[in-house]
Amino acid sequence: MFDLIIRRARAIDAEDVVFDLAIKDGLIAKIGQINAKARQEIDLNGRFYASAGWIDSHVHCYSASPIYNDEPDLVGIAGGVTTVIDAGSCGANDIGHFNQLAQACQTEVRALLNISRIGLATQHELADLADIDLAAADRAITQYPDFIVGLKARLSSSVVGGNGITPLKMAKAIQQQHPKLPLMVHVGNTPPDLDDITQMLDQGDILTHCYNGKPNRILNCSGTVRTSIYRAIERGVTLDVGHGGASFSFAVARQAIAQGVLPNTISSDIYCRNRIAGPVFGLAPVMAKFLSLGMTLAEVIQCVTAHPAQILHLTAKGRLEVGFAADISIFAVDSTDLVQSDCEGESLLCAQQFRPLAAIVAGKIFLTDEGKTEHVFNL
Length: 379
Known about the structure:
By secondary structure, the chain is α/β, with parallel strands linked by helices. It is built from 12 helices and 15 strands. The strands form 3 sheets. A 7-stranded parallel beta sheet has the order 6-7-8-9-10-11-12. Strands 3-2-1-4 form a 4-stranded mixed beta sheet, with no helix packed on it. Helices cover 23% and strands 27% of the residues.
């Protein structure tokens, strides 16, 4: 007998197609028409979608951080997200404490290790090169191999001070000792310049805030995508949205997408302030912005499932396939007239919105507030 069967879920990439999905022992056991019984069943009646569990690949959810903090379950399962990746809130000093806190969460939590040992204890964690302790980083990565899935370096003037590109060189030195770990690089105001940053990135590395509206953006002064960005993409560098409170522009995204430069991963860069006051609110609203910018439903879902799982080497996640982790997001896509904002003061009328109803993590169901109002979830 199966532990759970989800019946008549809507398929993402095929109109009017429904399927059943069975779960046993925390794994996906069968997909298709299932003539069997389970200890628990949910019938979505062809009304709601089921996808692989959403992965928000850029959040800040270390609750003890003095600057950017939140609770993993408030940015995770509360919004239909099954896995969150904290993007550098902690360095080697605090990663052990964060790992301990994460064990008590229902949301799956992983971390990118800040190359500064102090993490986001300040806004300028890379201004003192002595805080980039290669030996301490190596020890942390060795001690927490299942928790640390990558590295994070913030390369903007307010963070690096007068150190320019040097912190990135030191980040690459850490990465050379752990070549399977991708490096996520935050780009903000110059210096250093985006061209100099991208020149140092390799296959599998991640450029976040890829559609920021600052002068150090991926577009040149004529509005065309920089040659350095095309070259980085050709080398296998991936682009992450990292919306946040100051790093997303509808205009930049619109122009870049029109030139064929789409995101590999859609992420929120969420923490308590931009979750409550906006303009982020959650991963689902950020995903909806990309529907309004012309991406298809299937493309958007790939950017929060298979793509981040592949980039971050989350080998058992990101796909609805037999044998994969039973991490599943159940949601609706509603027609609305909701106006959403970017970080540059521009508003956009979004005709469709994602409405997350449940996050299933390793086979365990967690309803969102919206999900609690739907009678299909009689739990």
